[in-house]
Amino acid sequence: MFSGLSHLACSTCDKTYGTEFRRQMCECGSPLFVQYDMDSLKREWTRDQLAERKQGMWRYHELLPVTHPDYMISMNEVMTPLMTLPNISKDMDVPLLLVKDESVLPTGTFKARGASVGISRAKQLGVKEIALATNGNAGAAWAAYAVRAGMKSLIAMPTSAPRVPYLETCYTGADVRLLEGTIAEAGIFVADYVLQTGAYEVSTFKEPYRLEGKKTIGFELAEQLSWKVPDVIVFPTGGGAGVVGIYKALVELQSLGWIEEGRFPKMVVIQAEGCAPLVRAYESGEKVSTYYENAETIAYGMRVPKSLADAHILSIIAKTEGIAYAVSDADIRKERQNIVRLDGFHACPEGAAALAGVRKLREIGFIKASERVVSINTGSGLKYVDQIDCAVQTAQEKI
Amino acid sequence: MFSGLSHLACSTCDKTYGTEFRRQMCECGSPLFVQYDMDSLKREWTRDQLAERKQGMWRYHELLPVTHPDYMISMNEVMTPLMTLPNISKDMDVPLLLVKDESVLPTGTFKARGASVGISRAKQLGVKEIALATNGNAGAAWAAYAVRAGMKSLIAMPTSAPRVPYLETCYTGADVRLLEGTIAEAGIFVADYVLQTGAYEVSTFKEPYRLEGKKTIGFELAEQLSWKVPDVIVFPTGGGAGVVGIYKALVELQSLGWIEEGRFPKMVVIQAEGCAPLVRAYESGEKVSTYYENAETIAYGMRVPKSLADAHILSIIAKTEGIAYAVSDADIRKERQNIVRLDGFHACPEGAAALAGVRKLREIGFIKASERVVSINTGSGLKYVDQIDCAVQTAQEKI
Asked: Domain Tryptophan synthase beta chain-like PALP spans what residues (chains A, B) (predicted)?
């Protein structure tokens, strides 16, 4: 059995759907989640079978929604490393800190995971054109995988999206549209576009399969830590597919009996002070978030005024005794520079935000010195070189 | 035995040196190469022992010059993937084409290999400050690993060096100097600087250990192809450490008996028409190259007017029945766009130059359709986004 794909289930109500046709969201307006035949998988699939397989996210194909290898659109994704940052670790007094470095994936961000699985599944469903709203990096990833699959893509992003992913997306030949406002306005444009053209919308949580790619971070993490989950996982959060994906992965691994039943890491959602809808909801004890007006942060990937899965994310935080916490742009800038100056590692601002969060949460005692903490670096610092300010100095001037 | 390190030998004359002190080049002015105790390694080390080890270049530590793991400065380098480019493959009629994608290494280029081993060995030798001349990417890599090792670094690059690696290097806190001219002028500055300060010069071939890092491409390649070397290896070439390193790796693997004795891939050196000293020497049957005046190309990593190892590179080409071949900047630009438009892969210009070379060499019959070809993508396309030209178009204008 290449995949244990079973059906789709609403994340909120009790509706279920078959997998044979394209689906977007549930009729009730909530995201759909992919379900697998766990009983069969439990019988037929063991951890030991992984040893023989190639590194990378597709090694977990039984828990991915593509039912035949012919539809796999892969760009040889590596298993992303768990990095140590020895000096940052010391500086923060978090001795057991690891950073899962997603920058080594194709197109330089964790968005490649969702794009690889999402495009593969779209190909299996006969899709010829995809459309999505993005802050930039998802666009670059989906456009690249779409090319690989021979599909057209329409990518809508805010005019304020960073220059690098914009250029990357254009370079693939995708149809790129720039919209005033945030990703929310780009989303409205895409919704209208798919109504008019019949393109398949693949914006975060608008279809069920991107999440399945994202969850492979959780599988890799568990395997890399010898099937022991860490105490804390810290994710810089915009749409929240990463958090939801990792949690789903851990639930599935528990149900296979590959990791300890009922033990979850504290799931920590880091947002920017300029765009912190989940933090605001968490702090006021709400079950859903409110649209965050005038959202603004230098960590563009986290500039999502309201996640479609906000209720689900807040429930994950509650269930795992996690937290939602906001850091300032100044903290992000400072931490990004700390990381490269202390450990030579060039994080993206979102990854730096997560580490700035680790620092603060250690200071207030939420994170203990004895805890194994995994912080996610979602992408390459190279995507944001424009934020680096260096005075040009010639040898002549200097000597 | 963590390392089989034995001694240093000149690449040209018959002088040898011990490894206990810092060394730069041989007294005769040629690069020094690291030698290992192959007899002991052959007795004590088998291919099977690799299975248990972590992925990445340090898994071959017996053939690296660092004699104790305490000195290893690593940033969790992954084993770089061998990518397929199905549509480019078809388009060029090179069915067995693979691209070794070095962009997933720390700082986004193959320079990380040399920097990781070079800095580790420098640390073991008690070095406190390194200095090097670079077209940009080596600077970014060495500065990052130097930070990790607690060393200072002086990085000299041409004022025309690309913006991204310049910014990356500055960001680490390195002392960056910009010089008029090419890497040759930067080299003169560095030579003077080390005389005055006692810093350790680590420019290409100026010390023996960078090459040892570079050669791990060859080890990985052989292991990934189940210890069968390909028919052709295509390397975009500036200083040439990559070509020399891979060849050295294959000689060592042969001497261990891990790969077939005496069988080498044709080693193909690709240069840019605007800076092709090795091609000119190869075509006129010279044993060394002449300084290439007014060197200029968009593939900055290949802008090296004269390699310190030119004689060695030319002899490798001769011994393996390879070739040195030049492509134009227009070819490079076109191929880079082809790759991303056909297969969604964002190569760097140097990697695109190598593939443009594959295309031409297939056209003239030097490469046969039946041959297994490995082309090296030396770095991330993100380093060169400034070369991408996209007209900004807003949704409003377009609809």
From this structure: 74-379
